[in-house]
Amino acid sequence: MLPLRRSGNQSSSVRRFWSSSHRRTGIAENQASSLLQKTYFSGNRLYDSTGLKGGFISSFASLNSDQTGQFSKPQPTNQTSANPAGSTETVTSESIATTNTPDQLPHRRRKRLKEDASENGQAEPVIPPDASAQLSNLSSALPTTSLRRKLAAYFALTKPRLSFLIVLSTTSAYGMYPISSLLTLDPAMTPLPTLSTSTLTFIYLTAGTFLSCCSANTLNMMFEPKYDALMSRTRNRPLVRGLVSRRGALLFAIATAATGLGLLYIGTNPTTTALSAANIFLYAFVYTPLKRIHVINTWVGAVVGGIPPLMGWVAAAGQTATTGHDTWRDMLFSEDSIGGWLLGAILFAWQFPHFNALSHTIRDEYKAAGYRMLAWVNPAQNARVALRYSILMFPISIGLWWVGVVGHGFLVGSTFANGWLVREAYGFWKHQGAQGTARGLFWASIWQLPILLVGGLVTKKGLWDGVWRNIFGQPEEEDDEYVYYDEEEESAVEAADKSHSTSSRESTLSTA
């Protein structure tokens, strides 16, 4: 019995110690117990709002330590909480839970907050923070003199995810360009079409396109920081938070534009460079101010999104000089340019289900900031437009197969991807964005486009013909469409024919 009594005395001493420590720090005993249960044993404690690993550590790290060594609860933005007694405010598990964003909470807590928001009539935030906001948060957390702080802030100006998507669409079109015409010059060449005749050109195209996107996105942020500050989606951008000065942003935009366009001019061709320069102008100086004037800005933005695939197609066409692509008219308006226009049409049509779903979730913020978006100007038309262009994906995808850019496998993959997009767009139109249909359409558009682009590369026309022949040993079919001549041999034959005809005339004259 003695060990039991010692154990009981020991446990009571521990309880008294914890109780006294809780009183000293201003945390009640039942509150600390709740905090341990709710946070320390959290199933998602690695991703809390403080950015520290471990729910227990992050829970206590979220408390502000004053000079007296006591902990006080951090106050939310634009809110004050006065304590008339001047004592330290206590921290509850509910207050800690509210510091996390819904997408960072464990499943059960996220579900509970979603139900509470529905009961209170609050809109659920369905769009996660973009890369620029995350980089801005990272930059602001670093020391002022840190080089990483500056790099993160300037990188946030580029909208990395959007720039990556544009580069993907450009390089995908570059890779899908048919180089079969090169095979006719030398019958000994491999029957597998290659991505390009120069890896260096591919690198120039990728780097130049990315830097051009950086310039356009920086100019876009530089022209509207006071409006970005009014929206939750854009209020964390570096210019809004003062992480980068307007002068620094302007110099960065000029430097990236000059470098990007220079790389495109050196490594590709002038037509690709002109398309990139036109895109920077359209996005920064037409689309950006038009957002506050008329809803047609969405269509202008869709044109901006459709130009990069055409750039990749023209860059590949410029390498095949033997096909007669010598002028910008040949590159853009010849029969061989149809594939580039179809790829641009895919990006053009994709903009509407993607952006219309995104804008629907924050339509009130767009309205308060003065942006003329279809989501609040005419919500019914906003849903119809999203559905209309989602359906348009089907004929465009079939057109790529029809003109011989992709093979039969693309029809199967694109049908599933486009069907998924149309199903979500139909629900978005039917429920007018309610019941989570806006979120469903947004994420369907996020996945549908890479499926089409990567699927087009994988199913490129003729890509697997050589592999099939190598595996199964099938003989290659001779192509009778082209006849190959040796220039010297042809000239020798012509000279012999000419001399033969001359001798024939002379013999005829002598006989006469």
Structure, explained:
- This protein has 512 residues and is mainly alpha-helical.
- Helix content is 68%, strand content 1%.
- It contains 24 helices and two strands.
- Strands 1-2 form a two-stranded antiparallel ribbon.
- β1 (64-65) and β2 (71-72) form a beta hairpin.
- The chain is globular and about 95 Å long.
- Residues 1-7, 24-106, 121-125, 181-197 and 479-485 have low confidence and may be disordered.
List keywords for this structure.
disordered N terminus; single chain; Tetracycline Repressor, domain 2; 68% helix; mainly alpha; 512 residues; 2 strands
Which class best fits the helix and strand makeup? mainly alpha
Low-pLDDT residue intervals, each spanning 5 or more residues:
1-7, 24-106, 121-125, 181-197, 479-485
Shape field: globular
Q: What can be said about the biggest beta sheet?
A: 2 strands, antiparallel
CATH topology of the domain at 140-183 and 190-333: Tetracycline Repressor, domain 2
Write down the oligomeric state.
Answer: single chain
CATH architecture descriptor name of the domain at 140-183 and 190-333: Orthogonal Bundle
Tell me the strand percentage band: under 5%
**What is the strand arrangement across the widest sheet?**
1-2
Number of strands: 2
Compute the CA-based radius of gyration: 32 Å
The helix/strand order is: HHHEEHHHHHHHHHHHHHHHHHHHHH
Ends apart, CA distance between termini = 148 Å
What is the tally of helical segments? 24
Overall average residue pLDDT: 76
Class of the domain at 140-183 and 190-333 in CATH? Mainly Alpha
Helical content stands at 55-70%
* CATH H-level superfamily title of the domain at 140-183 and 190-333: UbiA prenyltransferase
